[in-house]
Amino acid sequence: MMTAIALIALVGCKAGSTSAGGSTSTGELKTDDEKALYAMGVMLGSNVTPMKLSPDQVEVVIRGLKDAASGNKPVIDPQQYGAQVQQFVHARAGVAAEGEKKKSEAFLAQAAQTPGAVKTASGLIYQTLKPGTGASPAATDTVQVHYQGSLIDGTVFDSSIQRGTPAEFALNGVIPCWTEGVQKMKVGEKAKIICPSSIAYGDQGRPPKIPGGAALVFEVELLNVKKK
Known about the structure:
Blueprint: H1 2-15, H2 32-47, H3 55-70, H4 82-112, E1 118-119, E2 125-130, E3 142-151, E4 156-159, H5 160-163, E5 167-170, H6 176-183, E6 190-195, E7 216-226
Antiparallel strand pairs: 1-2, 2-6, 3-4, 3-5, 3-7, 6-7
Helix pairs in contact: 1-2, 1-3
């Protein structure tokens, strides 16, 4: 999947430099199709940012894409290189994830020292912002919450508050950080839940919004608990 996304993304990036119904890389996007294609390129291109391909590497990929799209015979048999492609993608993603985890270390250490914060054995950091008085959920329960998730630099990647609609989900069907953290809450409580990547989305992340290895910060309000 990552390989396919990477290839499509690079097509989108390259296509912006050629004419498409009169548009160029610096020209106006005139039609809805052009705007949709450009948006596709931006979204898919964000998925391969962690790979940090050099301009020369991008050009090699583009060469393969052009040959395939034009029906030219490939200069090598791509079927023989599937394993190498996967190894390349995973190696690049792993390096990027390690860098992201390194960036998170100081943030997590400081967050754990915040008055009222509790760090658990899993690495989760939990802080009550407003106490609640209702029941606490079990892992098998369904919860209704309002929440906002952000990266350590404050970039919001998801928010039910902004959407104006509470989220509802089975507590054992989400990332481990949420399963553990929300069980500590009582209905009516607001809390900050900080997740190291090991109990969030791991080295793979959730591109394009969540990089691999990223620590995440959630502010959560527990609205209701539906017992199994």
